[in-house]
């Protein structure tokens, strides 16, 4: 009994002794429950809820701090945190499974494609505008519709919802412009669920391609294989054929994305395959991928069009060229895919070493990193897909050409082009972010609530940055607006004509003597991206012209004219690029940009303010040619692109006076 009471007494002393640290901790815990008023007045709090006596007497708000966990509570806190992490992990897994299900079952309600526009009877009832000529002035926007929108509510109201912010691509936001939406309704293009587009964002865009291509691409005639002592061989891929497709790949795709070193590939990788045949290793996969892309490069430029006058060459709309070889590579990827395990991470950490950026391996790492960086960022800008954090390393990895003294002249030109694209990508990203930020702060700097004026201080700064980029281009890449269709200032060893000759044309010219070179697409990509950026910088003035024409100043009209002029005759849509669409990088992005341009150009014939701007500042012939080129592009690409197919359902109605001329 004594020993028992002794333990109890010791415990009471440990928590109640005035000089003991345990008592101070207990008092601190009790003091933590005091309300803010008692704490500030250093008064004893009776801890009554909802108001203590002092706060009730003073008639003030009574606030209590959250009690801080004591040492005794640490275990429960850790358990709670672990449970929370498990639940969050489970939620992430469930969301990934849900997304996977959408890809596997594109016919599900979540990925259901809206029905096509209304019938012809509806068109007859709702069409109130008649356009006698594709570029004659007729019709106007209803004033009652115009007065119902302010710049904030009309342009950016959907940005208020955090769930929809930054999930809709810039071209499709034009669909939400009140003037364009009202005009499309008048033309009988009903059935476009704009609210669904706003809510879904990027998944709404992707689901159309899922329905267009619901199954994994299969082939009717796979490659015939034969066994070899050390692997397998494909009789159709003899030495002559492999050399042909290797040449096609390095002359085309590797110039757009200079990932591989040609000498290393031919002398090491390809030679190993010739000696031993194909296995399940990385070298075999790499060679098969290069050969499959070589088929695309060769057939995409020289193959039979999938239909008459199509710029999509080689294979069919359902089976692209090179698919049999590509599938052989895909079959082997599972054997070398990275496992997600702690042990695998430990192995990589233990075997890691510092990269010598000037070595052949370092140069290869630089190329791979910057190609991935550029592609990921274009996807982020064009589809708003989330970034992986790859860009956080850009300060650690030098540019591909830095320190590489053994680079060839052709590769040097490719790297100049790549570096220029990378810096232009940064400017375009800044354009998107700064204009979006200007929307939220515009009310403090510009009277947009009254006149719809864009944030001109931001726009002028962005234009300055864009001009600085252009002026800093190497001489080999520079061009003047008057000569934007000419060859670049690059004279290589492949018989490329001089810079004074025309490279890009509205009509098909003679066959190029330098067939196999991809200089046209490289040049068109750089110049068209620049004009796209300029179009984005000034696009807000076109919106103002449509919705606040009475507030347009002379300077505003000049800015709107710059936007419209920047949208005309992009080289990427002209010959010879349009005849080799399978070789155009991120084809879907250009297609989406063309949708926005076509919607804006259509309004030149409808809106009086824009029609006057066209008459004073634009070349009407270039406007007509641009419309013809872009409509022809959309009609061609809709065979393989779900968004182009969807867009064609309303574009052919909006341009029914032009489509009939094809």
Automatic annotation (TrEMBL):
One of its GO terms (molecular function) is DNA-binding transcription factor activity, RNA polymerase II-specific. Residues 438-454 have a biased composition (Polar residues). Residues 34-64 form the Zn(2)-C6 fungal-type domain. CDD domains: fungal_TF_MHR, GAL4. Gene3D superfamilies: Zn(2)-C6 fungal-type DNA-binding domain. The keyword Nucleus applies. Residues 1-27, 436-457 are annotated as: Disordered. Keywords: Nucleus. The keyword Nucleus applies. It comes from the Eukaryota. Pfam families: Zn_clus (PF00172). This is Zn(2)-C6 fungal-type domain-containing protein. It comes from Mytilinidion resinicola.
């Amino acid at each position: 009994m004594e020993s028992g009471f002794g333990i109890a007494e010791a415990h009471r002393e440990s928590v109640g002794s005035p000089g003991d640290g345990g008592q101070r901790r207990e008092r601190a815990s009790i003091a933590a429950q005091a309300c803010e008023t008692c704490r500030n007045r250093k008064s004893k709090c009776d801890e009554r809820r909802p108001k203590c006596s002092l706060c009730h007497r003073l008639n003030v708000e009574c606030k209590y701090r959250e009690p801080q966990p004591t040492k005794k509570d640490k275990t429960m806190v850790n358990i709670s945190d672990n449970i929370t992490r498990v639940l969050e992990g489970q939620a992430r897994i469930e969301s990934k499974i849900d997304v996977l299900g959408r890809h596997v079952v594109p016919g599900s309600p979540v990925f259901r494609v809206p029905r096509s526009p209304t019938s012809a009877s509806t068109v007859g009832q709702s069409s109130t505008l008649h356009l006698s000529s594709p570029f004659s002035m007729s019709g106007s926007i209803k004033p009652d519709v115009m007065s119902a929108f302010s710049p904030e509510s009309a342009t950016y109201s959907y940005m208020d919802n955090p769930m929809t912010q930054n999930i809709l691509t810039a071209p499709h936001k034009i669909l939400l412009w009140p003037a364009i939406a009202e005009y499309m309704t008048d033309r009988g293009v009903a059935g476009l669920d704009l609210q669904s587009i706003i809510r879904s964002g990027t998944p709404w865009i992707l689901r159309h391609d899922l329905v267009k291509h619901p199954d994994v691409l299969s082939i009717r005639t796979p490659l015939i294989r034969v066994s070899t002592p050390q692997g397998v061989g494909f009789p159709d891929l003899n030495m002559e054929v492999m050399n042909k497709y290797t040449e096609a790949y390095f002359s085309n795709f590797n110039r757009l994305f200079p990932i591989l070193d040609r000498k290393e590939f031919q002398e090491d990788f390809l030679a190993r395959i010739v000696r031993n045949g194909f296995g399940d290793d990385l070298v075999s996969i790499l060679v098969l991928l290069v050969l499959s892309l070589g088929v695309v490069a060769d057939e995409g430029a020289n193959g039979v069009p999938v239909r008459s006058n199509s710029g999509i060459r080689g294979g069919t709309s359902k089976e692209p060229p090179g698919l049999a070889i590509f599938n052989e590579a895909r079959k082997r990827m599972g054997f070398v895919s990275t496992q997600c395990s702690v042990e695998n991470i430990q192995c990589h950490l233990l075997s890691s070493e510092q990269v010598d950026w000037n070595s052949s391996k370092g140069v290869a790492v630089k190329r791979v990193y910057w190609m991935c960086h550029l592609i990921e960022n274009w996807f982020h800008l064009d589809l708003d897909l989330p970034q992986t954090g790859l860009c956080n390393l850009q300060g650690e990895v030098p540019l591909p050409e830095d320190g590489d003294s053994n680079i060839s002249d052709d590769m040097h030109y490719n790297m100049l082009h790549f570096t220029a694209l990378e810096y232009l990508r940064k400017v375009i990203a800044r354009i998107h972010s700064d204009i979006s930020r200007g929307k939220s702060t515009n009310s403090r700097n510009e009277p947009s609530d009254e006149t719809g004026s864009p944030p001109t201080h931001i726009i002028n700064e962005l234009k300055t940055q864009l001009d600085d980029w252009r002026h800093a281009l190497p001489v080999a890449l520079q061009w003047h607006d008057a000569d934007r269709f000419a060859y670049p200032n690059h004279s290589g060893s492949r018989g490329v004509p001089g810079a004074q000759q025309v490279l890009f044309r509205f009509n098909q010219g003679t066959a190029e003597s330098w067939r196999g070179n991809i200089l046209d697409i490289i040049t068109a990509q750089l110049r068209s991206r620049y004009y796209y950026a300029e179009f984005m910088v000034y696009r807000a003035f076109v919106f103002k012209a449509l919705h606040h024409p009475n507030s347009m100043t002379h300077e505003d009209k000049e800015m709107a004219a710059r936007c419209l002029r920047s949208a005309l005759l992009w080289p990427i849509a002209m010959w010879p690029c349009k005849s080799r669409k399978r070789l155009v990088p991120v084809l879907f992005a250009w297609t989406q940009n063309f949708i926005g341009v076509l919607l804006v150009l259509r309004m030149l014939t409808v809106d009086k303010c824009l029609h006057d701007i066209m008459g004073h500042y634009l070349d009407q012939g270039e406007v007509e040619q641009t419309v013809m080129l872009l409509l022809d592009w959309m009609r061609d690409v809709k065979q393989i692109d779900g968004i182009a197919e969807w867009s064609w359902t309303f574009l052919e109605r909006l341009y029914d006076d032009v489509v009939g001329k094809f």
